[in-house]
Amino acid sequence: MNEHDSSQLGAYVLGALEPDEAREVDQHLATCADCRAELAELEEMKEFLGEVPPEAFLEGPPPDGDLLLQRTLREVRTTAAPERRRRSRWLMAAAAVVVIAGALAGGILIGRQSVSPADAPVAGAKQVIATDGTTGTTMATTVEPRGGWSWVEVKLTGLKAGAECEMLVTDKGGKTWVAGTWSVSEKSAREGSWFAGGVLVPIDQVKSVQIRTLQGQHVVTTEV
Amino acid sequence: MWVPAVAGIVRSVGDYRSPEAAEALVRVLYAEHGRSLLAYATRLTGDRAAAEDVVQETLVRAWKHADDLTEGKGSVRGWLLTVARNIVTDRARARAARPTEVADVEERTPVEGDHSESVVNTMVVLDALDQVSAEHREVLVQLYYRGRSVAEAAKELGVPPGTVKSRSYYALRALRAVMSGDPVPARGKGEVAR
Fold first, then answer.
1. Is the CB of A4 inside 8 Å of chain B's CB atoms?
2. Which GO BP terms apply (chain A) (predicted)?
3. Which residue from B36, B39, B175 is facing A45, i.e. has the nearest CB?
């Protein structure tokens, strides 16, 4: 090896030189402090390479692994499913608003039946229940945290059939947000009414949830 | 890089928690990294069935931690391999400890395994390897990870042995530059494949 022909050192460190070439490098290293210092640096890099398993450089899917993929997808689908139910309820709540808007315009009242009962609340959710002394309406409110917004679900008993309601969320700054409107069917008046909507208020800023008729009459309020 | 593919999926589908996005994410991860993961897990466990369980759990965790994968900008493969190794280690420890120390095993938080120091190292090194040029990475893979001699690598890569030697030297220097945060040598830039 020529003096300071450091380009041999890479292959030397990686153990890829032929035995006679490696011996030449050994001999040179014995007499050259510069190359020994450089060698130490390269060896450090080799140590780093050792942190990565050789399998890291295989590409693509495994051969004969389709069953494994299907099994994994099944597990993920099963786990992801509760989220889908929430999302579809959100869509149904949104659809209810559209129905009501159309109904009011046409002068026809379309009752909205209650949707499936709420799932177990997610982590960080708040639940409160209150009964209004005047109207006799009881409301169980669940507020679930989302990414910077909140999902509000209410279960109401004691509403009058035909009543047109809106759900209002007031934040700690005093601003009031409409989280949806609906009308109460005979069945919901009898068996209880479920409603939900989203508001662009972080959960720690949600102060209260109020139900009011579209005519502006107070029905019930829960302080969160 | 692996990251953009995953980030693209998450962005295009929106909320990866929806079953559709979750499925898309898992399919992409499986198609890109499945072979690597299963081979690694098979070597560690010495058992194909156990290895498949490990891969399944790894992909499920990847989906649950999709934020880390997409926002961290780190090597997705490094993350997956590390998690797979932790799962294997945790299971081996649990098996070894169970007869006498059931309580200890149950109390141990599995989270620890996700963020131990060697975890970071695998990811850091794979990241660094992603930042050197494809030529440099290739020669390191041949000589170090595949254990080839200079002559074998020269044949495989279709370049003279002298080129393999000098490239391996400059590859290690480039790696060192990346690891120490220095600017990558010019030819390393813009050549990042994968």
1. no
2. regulation of translation
3. B175
- Measured between alpha carbons, how far is A147 from B67 in angstroms, rounded to an integer? 12
Residue A73 lies in a domain: no
A207-210: long-range pairs with CB below 8 Å, 24+: A207/A170, A207/A171, A207/A172, A208/A169, A208/A170, A209/A139, A209/A141, A209/A143, A209/A152, A209/A154, A209/A167, A209/A168, A209/A169, A209/A170, A209/A179, A210/A167, A210/A168, A210/A169, A210/A170
- pLDDT digit string, tens, across residues A63-99: 887 899 999 999 988 877 654 444 445 455 544 444 4
User: Do residue A49 and residue A92 come from a single domain?
Assistant: no
Class of domain B132-188: mainly alpha
The residue assigned the tokens 């965790």 is B61
Would you say residue A18 lies in a domain? yes
The ipTM is: 0.75
Contact B166 A48 (CB under 8 A): no
Residue A71 falls within a domain, yes or no? no
- A184 occurs within a structural domain: yes
Same structural domain for residues A31 and A123?
no
Tell me how many domains chain A contains: 2
Residues A119 and A21 placed together within one structural domain of the fold: no
